[in-house]
Amino acid sequence: MRTLVVLGALAAPTLALAAPTAELAADVDGDGAVDAVRIDAPGQLVIERGGGGGQLVPFGGSGALTEARLTLGALGARRVLVATARIAGRWEAVALVATRPGAALTELWRGPVGPGGDDEYEQWVVADARGLVRFQTRGDQRRCDGVPLELFPERWDERGRRFVAAPPARIDPPAGAPTVTAQPTGPGLATAWYRATTASRAAGAADASMLTAPRALGDGDLATAWTAGERDDGVGAVWNFRTTVSGGKAAAIRIVPSGDGAATRARPARLLVIAAAGAAVIEVPDPIARRAPPGQAYTAVLPTALDGCVSIALLDVHRGRGGAAIAELAVLADVELAPEGAGPVLAAQVVAGGLAAESAARLLIAHGAPAVVAIRAALEGATGDARRRLLAALAQIRDPGVIGPLAAALAAGDLPGARATTAAATLAALGPEGQGALLELIGGAGDEDAQRAAIAALATTDRAALIARAGRGPRAVRAELARALAMVPVATLVAAAQTAAEPAAAADLWRALGSAAATADPDARAVATTALAAALAAAGPSYELRYRTLAALAPLVDGAAVRTLAATVQRLPDSAAGHALARVAARGLANNRAPAAQLVLAELTDATDPGTRLEAVRGLANGGAGAPAPIAAPGVTGDVADAADRALINVLGADHWPAIRQQAAAGLGQRCGRPGPSAALIAAVDGDVHVPVRVEAVAALAQCPTAALDARFLGWIDDGDVPLPVRDRAIAAYGERPGVTGALLARFVRWRGQAFSDDTALQLAIRAATSLGQRGAAEAGPELLAAARDQAFPELAAAAIRALGALGPACPPAAPALLRGLLGADDQMLALAARAAITTCRAAPARP
Fold it and tell me: CA 666 to CA 679: how far, in whole Å?
């Protein structure tokens, strides 16, 4: 029989065919004479009978014939011929049967074959000694000796005239393959060198696309198992195992035939182990017949270690009350069976680096405690990246043996970033010894990132233990420690702070107490406030202690305590330290919702230190909104709002620092519904000597709801003596007010006409276009469209284009075509603007 002939340049997929060929010389009609059969272009089966006559069977497709094959088999006493061809890129098969000797062949079946299921697998029909057979193939489903696997085989049922499920093709061991009997063994270590990658069948899989890696075979859980169907004995199933790292060969097979979920089902009796250069048969005792406990493991040492990919096929089973099941099945590498285990080999691969190092590190982590000795030994001579890789693996193994190396590595900064976090979490999870190592690290001279990671790890296990490290280490470490200690109960922090031996430790604890009290219940907050007030009074000359107690106390005080705090601030010296303390007090009062805090802030707007004044103005603008919860303030008299208004108005009109006036203008914007703040802002727009203050005042007035301001905005917009930034901001503010589209559009048209001779008019036109777009002003569409077409001023055209996009459904009908034309504009600014606008410019359909 001739070999397969492939037409064209495309390679045919590899199939388990019975000598497929595109030309065949054989007796296909059963009359004893040799017939000549071939597949010809453009797509037809030609049969020339040896006894005379012929037959032509066309395929259904038309086009170029690129691949073809023929197979011949027996269907009972009759011959069956299958012709398969790829025509115009589509595979088709036709099955013909000889109904009687010498007669024309009759069509038995015809249909598509080849790739299916979104190309996840292929389906083929062949004729061989089994009859007419249909099966599936998949690229990764191939035995390790190169033999492809027939998945989900079906045979033709003559009576039903259809394909029905059939047993898989018989697998025979290679001649001379030795037989080994598996012996009972203990649980053993987890195996990770080889991993099960494919299974040729599994319960619940309806086609080849549903076959996944059989994770249950290696998950170490005897309650899970690989299973065939309920009535499927699994014989013929094949599993492939591949190495995840190099350097080891398959030396043994370990199997748990029955576990918690597989004790009464059919169990493996004979397995065939196949590799590219060797094979062996393994006989597995029946644990049920031997009354072995559920989960009994058996190990078979292979006569010769096998290199590379390993396939295991199920040849026979011990019968049970259901289909086949296997609790665990693993391939053991020779390095795993060595007395010292796989650790040294894996550690050496980690040191060597590359992709193999990543796989080796994962295996070391999977081995757990037994790998620690190997990693520690490799660390002794490792440096640089090799050392860091070893430490990263060690950081993910929770065993007491990692405590010393990880603590030393953290202190030395050998584990930066996320690796430090992982290592610290591992130490914290290892109990008192690991947590003690982390505590020793905090506040020392070691790496700051590692110290912060240690604090974060201990904050999840034993926050109270962190109290002992308060006051130690760099500023960033102490700040992290205070944040972690804020989760400790208030009473615990008060006691610790009051008994702290060092001012620095007390300062950290008072800092943590302030954060803890902010979210505590009223009773705990009162305890914290009393303790902080006493600590502030007794702080003495320690700047840090006064700073931390002031910062913690200011957001919490209420009632008469606010005035006490104010008196303390007033007594601060006129020095750099005194000014810094006043600022921190003002910053804290800004987050205090007690009305009395606003009164104190109003007083502090007269402070000699500009930094204190700025913090006070910010606090008045904030109005205590940053405080965590309302604070009652009994005994407060006077109109707090009026006092805050007056303070901000005075600052806006008289403070000689522009940044402070600018902040005051922003604060008055929230109050401009009242006459005083509004008048002060108008005066600032008209008369402040610094443009940024005037701009901020315009922005603040934009929040005022009164229509009387519209004329003011127009006056500033039209006044040529007003600086351009002020006019620009006034246009933006005016554009947000109701009923102003007409006036804004008229000015846009005027400024656009003046742009040729007036740069200021050009800038105003750009701002007006933006405002019109933001308003969604449909009536502005034609003028914006005209501006977009006029590219004399690309920046104005780009603003108009963006405005057209902002109109959305109000975009003019002609705009989308213009925008499409601008997508290829030479000016990148126009092209980018068009690209953004075209996604939102959706002209409404024209009315009939």
Answer: 14
Report residue 282: phi and psi, to 5°.
-120, 125
- Residue 789 has, within 13 A of its CA and on its CB side, a CA count of 11
Lowest mean pLDDT segment, chosen from 334-338, 459-463, 815-819: 334-338
58-88 pLDDT, tens digit each: 999 888 899 999 999 999 889 999 999 999 8
Pair 415, 441: CB distance under 8 Å: no
Identify the three-state secondary structure at position 97.
Answer: strand
Largest distance between two CA atoms of the chain? 125
All residues at 6 or more sequence positions from 338 whose CB lies less than 8 Å from its CB, including other chains: none
Task: Answer whether 517's CB lies under 8 Å from 488's CB.
Answer: no
Please tell me whether residue 204 adopts helix, strand or coil conformation: coil
Going from the C-alpha of 13 to that of each of 8, 114, 121, 437, the distances in angstroms are 14, 9, 11, 61
Residue at token pair 């898989």 = 168
Distance CA 475, CA 652 (A): 37
Cis peptide before 738 (omega within 30 of 0): no
Residue 581 in tokens: 């303390």
Write out the two tokens for 537: 């009074």
- How far apart, in Å, are the Cα atoms of 740 and each of 716, 735, 777? 15, 7, 10
Contacts of 734 (CB under 8 A, 6+ apart): 710, 713, 714, 717, 740, 744, 771
CB of 245 within 8 A of CB of 346? yes
Q: Which residues contact 394 (CB under 8 A, 6 or more apart)?
A: 372, 375, 376, 379, 402, 405, 406, 423
Asked if omega into 42 is within 30° of 0 (cis), the reply is yes
CA distances from 739 to 699, 710, 713, 734, 793 (A): 19, 10, 14, 10, 29
Q: Is 67 exposed, middle or buried (0-12, 13-18, 19+ CB in 10 A)?
A: buried
Alpha-carbon torsion 631, 633, 639, 645, what sign?
negative
pLDDT of 295 reads: 84
pLDDT for position 363: 80
Q: How many CB atoms lie within 10 A of CB 234?
A: 25
Neighbouring CB atoms inside 10 A of 250's CB total 27
Q: Select from 39, 43, 44, 84 the least CA-distant residue to 64.
A: 43
| 708, 737 Cβ separation under 8 angstroms | no
Q: Which DSSP letter does residue 486 get? A: T
Spatial separation of the C-alpha atoms in residues 409 and 447, rounded to whole Å: 9
827 DSSP 8-state letter: S
Whole-prediction pTM: 0.63
